[in-house]
Amino acid sequence: MFYLPLKTLSSHMRKISFVIIIATLLAIPTRLKAERDSIPVLRDTTLEGLGLISQFSANLDSLLNLWYVQTGQDTANMLSVVESDSTVIETTPLPDSVYIQRLADMNSFIDLPYNSIVRNFINVYTNKQRDKVQIMLGLADFYFPIFEEILDRNSLPIELRILPVIESALNPRAVSRVGATGIWQFMYGTGRMYDLTINSYIDERRDPIASSHAAVRFLKDLYSIYGDWTLVIAAYNCGPGNVNKAIRRAGGKRSYWDIYYFLPRETRGYVPAFIAANYAFAYHSEHSITPTPMKLPATTDTIMVSGMLHLEQVSHVLNVPMKTLRDLNPQYKADIIPAKKKQMTLRLPFEAIGPFIDQQQEIFAYKDTIYFSPKNVIHPSRYTASYHHYVPAGSNRITYRVKEGDVLGTIAEQHGVRVSQLRSWNNIRGSMIRVGQKLTIYVKGPIGGQMSSAPKDADPNYIYYKVRRGDTLSGIAQHYPGISASDIKRANNLPNDRLMPGQTLKIKPKG
Fold it and tell me: Which residue has the higher pLDDT, 170 or 9?
């Protein structure tokens, strides 16, 4: 209870006293509330708090907008889903005690304290940016299992799966204003330090699996320095150098909240955002936030690829949307898998793995002269004559007559050879061939195509062909000048025209 003889004061003094009284009265409930709930209250001014929140909110907007621009997601449809949501958006904040209890109930291995700054970020996720959280929850269905498996394999806290939410809003193509790239936001130097491939074709910072392995190694190294996960999270954002400076300026104190004001400004909001994001993902249902379904395959698998391959070749032959292939393989910057010298991964929807294996040669041959123009590679004719006319040992020479609709890629695929070999053997510099033109082809066993490995007792006068799904005797015969379906049937003692995939046929070439 306060009593002042206001009538005896001058007008000026009355104004000053009034301000002091109001300020004191306003401070009492705040202080009592802080003491009651044991909430750490920092010197967080209104302007600074608003600055951190608005910057974070703007970054979240831009990251998710970038996702839709670069992946071709149906933004209009997404907005209609959000706008048609009849859920009433929460406008009345919950009591602090509710947040405190919920964070405690999460039983997190990483400390998740509550204070006024964390409360502000929780409000961003559950109110101001709830539509963005819906999107990230949908994306998490695809990405979280990847993160969780790698974190678990390395015995790291599962709560760290939230870091990519803060870093990139789960956008593997996100690029910060300073060049940090990918779902875990690696700088170029750090990415190379942790063995991520970065060149004109590939940026493994954008590969959710490769970058997650790198992030785990980085987090382990940071933990060996600090032994405190909150400091590790801060150092992941601004680097150990900045955290070490903050510790020195704080007189050697090693608590995040003790060094809070000595950290770079953007990092001050990083740990609170991490805590708030963990809260939002754990309690989104309590805030009537529902995940927005993403058009990403429920199950995927990885296959190893050898040779140059364009994603459009896969898309056209297997009828898999390019958007899906790009979403599953964001590390290939130019949509090209440059697996010339070593095998590289191709992630596909699970149901496309079998067809890829069955049609691999057709996929590689599809418009290969268009996707991989000879102008961009060294032509075989520029090598020595001995290489120019190189013929694999034990090959059988056949002559093929070009038919209407033939291109080098399909001819090469049909005979189990490479387009470069066809060019070399026939002195072809470009891709032009004409109907009726005769091509010399040397076939032997399975040189990457349809030709089957010759049986142990193979007759050297024959070539051997492995039947594929959809093959017919007449169709096979068309590939070999002078050969008829009857010739193949007679040479293989076939009782009828029925063929089985995997069956080996012997063919005696003519000409």
Answer: 170
Asked if pLDDT for residue 398 goes beyond 50, the answer is yes
Q: Is the pLDDT of residue 349 over 50?
A: yes
Residue 371 falls inside a structural domain: no
Domain-located, residue 240: yes
Task: Flag whether 398 is in a domain.
Answer: yes
Same domain, 102 and 216: yes
Instruction: Residue 31: give the domain boundaries.
Output: 6-37
Residues 33 and 159 in one domain: no
Specify which residues 465 forms β-bridges with. 451, 505
Q: Catalytic: which of 167, 204, 362, 413? A: 167
Q: How is residue 87 written in tokens?
A: 């859920």
pLDDT at residue 91 tops 60: no
Per-residue pLDDT tens for 2-30? 333 333 334 444 444 444 444 444 443 44
Identify whether 89 is part of a domain.
no
Whether 23 and 153 map to the same domain: the answer is: no
Q: Is residue 339 pLDDT above 80, yes or no?
A: yes
Which tens digits make up the pLDDT trace of 67-80?
Answer: 433 443 332 232 23
- Dihedral of CA 401/402/408/409: which sign? negative
- Tokens (6 digits) for 260: 């809070």
Residues 6 or more apart whose CB falls under 8 angstroms from that of 378 comprise: none
Assess whether 167 carries a catalytic annotation.
yes
In the chain, how many domains are there?
A: 4
Quick one: 106 and 175 in the same domain?
yes
- Residue 400's alpha-carbon distances to 420, 437, 464, 465, in angstroms, are 16, 8, 16, 15
Alpha helices (runs of H) in 154-303, residue ranges in sequence order? 163-168, 188-193, 208-226, 229-238, 240-249, 265-268, 270-282
